[in-house]
Design brief:
The complex is a heterodimer. By secondary structure, chain A is α+β, with helices and mostly antiparallel strands. Chain A is built from 4 helices and 6 strands, in the order ααβαβββββα. Helix content of chain A is 36%, strand content 28%. By secondary structure, chain B is an alpha+beta fold. In chain B, strands 1, 2, 3, 4, 5, 6 and 7 form a 7-stranded antiparallel β-sheet that branches.
Amino acid sequence: MTRPPIPLLFLLLLASCNYSHNELLKAPEEQAALRTMQTRAYDTVDEQKTMRAVIATLQDLGFVIDDANAMLGIVSATKLEGGYVRVMVTVKRHGEKQTAVRASAQANTKTITDPGVYQQFFASLSKGMFLSAHEIE
Amino acid sequence: MRGAAMALLLAGCASAPREPFAVPPAAAAQRVMQSRRYDTRDEAQVLRASGALLMDLGFTVDKSEESLGVLVASKDRSAVETGQVVLAIVIGVLGGDVPYDHHQKLRASIVTHPAQAKSVVVRVTFQRIVWDSHGLVSKREQLNNPEQYQEFFEKLSTSLFLEAHDA
C-alpha cells in the first residue's frame, strides 16, 4: 500500500478546521485591548450633541452616513473613496458627568486593530466637540 | 523575506485605505460642494422638504432620524451604457465574455444641523454601487459632480421657498 503524499494530508487537515460560517460570532482577537483603543470619554452629558458631532466629523472625514438612531445611540457610515471602510459608532452615558464614544471600523473583511487609526478619529472628533478625549479602562 | 513578499501581495489585492480617519486633502472643498445654508430655524421643515424632494426624484427613504437630522434614501436604476454593451457584443462575437454594467443603486445621505444666525445647514452626499451583467459589484463610488449637487440644492430651494447660501 502506498502512502498518500504529505501535501495532500496537509490540505485535508486545513480543510477540516476552517469553515467560513464560524466568522459569525467570532470576536477580533484581544477584544479588551481593542475596546480600549476604540473608546474615549468626553466631559459632557449631552448625548445628542455628541451624536451630531460624530456625524459631522464622519462627513468631514469623507464618510457617508448610513444610519443614525438617537434612542440607541448608534451611527453607522461608509467610506468609498480610496477603499471600502465601514464604521459603527456608539454613544452612551459614562458615569455621572461623561459620555463615552466607541468607534469600530471594518476595512473590507477585517476589523481595524491599529490604535493610530482610532486616535485620528478621536482627534478630529475632539476638535468638532471642542472637548478633549479621555481614555477609559 | 518571503513573508514580506506575501504580505505585499495580499495588500495589493484588497484596497483598504491605511488611514481611513485621516482628514482628506479635499475635505474643505467637499464640504463646500455638499453643503448649503438656509435661513430658517425650522430644521424639521428642511428635513421634510428634503424627503419630499427625494421622493420627487424617485428615491425611497431607507433610514430617518429627525432628532439627529438624518435622512438616507436610495433608488435602483439601470446602469447600462451603450459603449460597454457594444464592446461586450464585439468581444462576444470573437468568442470572449466580458461583463458590462447592468444596474445600480444610487444613494443619497442627508444631514441637517442648526447653524448660527437662525439658519439650518444641509449637507448631502451621493454615492452609487454598480453591478455588472454577471451580477458582481463593478463599482462602489462617491459621486462628486458639483453640478449635480448644485442642481439638488436649487431644487431644495424651490421646495423650501428659501434661497440657498454657501454654508
